[in-house]
Specification:
Layout (H helix, E strand, L loop, with lengths): L4 E4 L10 H12 L4 E4 L9 H4 L10 E5 L3 H9 L3 E5 L13 H9 L2 E4 L2 H9 L7 E3 L25 E6 L8 H11 L5 E6 L3 H12 L6 E5 L3 H10 L2 E4 L8 H8 L4 E4 L4 H4 L7 E3 L4 H13 L3 H15 L2 H17 L9
Helix pairs in contact: 1-13, 3-4, 6-11, 9-12
Length: about 350
Amino acid sequence: MPPTLLLVTDPEAPGGADLFSLELAKAALQRGIRTAIQPMPRAPNPRAPSLRRSSFAKDSDIVVVNGFQIEVLRTVKSMNKRAAVRLLGVPVNPENAPSAEFRELAAAADLLLLPSRHLIDTMRGLGLGPRSLHLVPFAYDRIPAENAALLPLSAMPLVGFHLVCVLPEETVMHECFDVLLMAFSLMPSDCHLSVIGDGAAARALKARAGKLGALGRMSFLGELSRARTHEHLRLAQALIDPCVHSGFPILPLNALSEGCPVVAAAGGGHPELVADGENGLLFSPGDPRAAAEAVLRLRHADGLSRKLIASGIRTVKEHTWERTALAALEALERLGTQPGRAGSIQ
């Protein structure tokens, strides 16, 4: 008999709409699997502690938690229920290491649904066995560039060559952005870099850019909404991402959807999304000269930008909700047939 699922929504889902839970429920219905959805409000008013005093998960075999919600998982495990958690990355502390709460969550979950092989390898490095890890592709159904004209660079009404980068949410300054600044200093004077992001990392980047004499060719835009960030991706001639991320490269996928070529470090999850010379360009991590050369290649190679944009749109089309939901349901059905529990939280 198929398991009954309770789907706990991500309170941080864009626009408050948890598409993963909605699409998973739709696909489950088609397979005869019963589901219920438990909405979770945005912080700082979490409902998780009150779940213990309700009928939460009483009639469910497996609770599927979308996102890093440690209090929800504690409640689930206190009820001796099986828990599957969908994660897109690894929260880190100021030392750039996985937080203690994240390790607790990862160890207690019966199943982790992860969007990249690199993130699976990261989890294995934390001592998790392969039975609890399952690859569930990231889905993205918004492709504005599909309806836009794919213009060659010479037809764009922009002066110079415009790059955009987005700082991570963490407050620490990553060494990869030092690489970006050094690479930028090697680029021609008509290259311009727009930086999206705020906080200590942005201030540190701006101070270092000043020492390199690069501020005149840079714009610091601060924290922007999702819509405004996408507008800048749409207008830029490339997104440059110098960092090696632990999770799935969501921002580069967003850029491809907007018709913005991606130039990224060949590490982390990037090679699982970007094929060098096909739908984007990769360079050796930590190598500013290689990063600068990749940008110049994009700028000067005849027809390359148009090729990358068209191929990038095809890449985005492959990241369907149908594919994501099917992979998740297959893993959840297997979990429903396994005896025992994988972990608990005190």
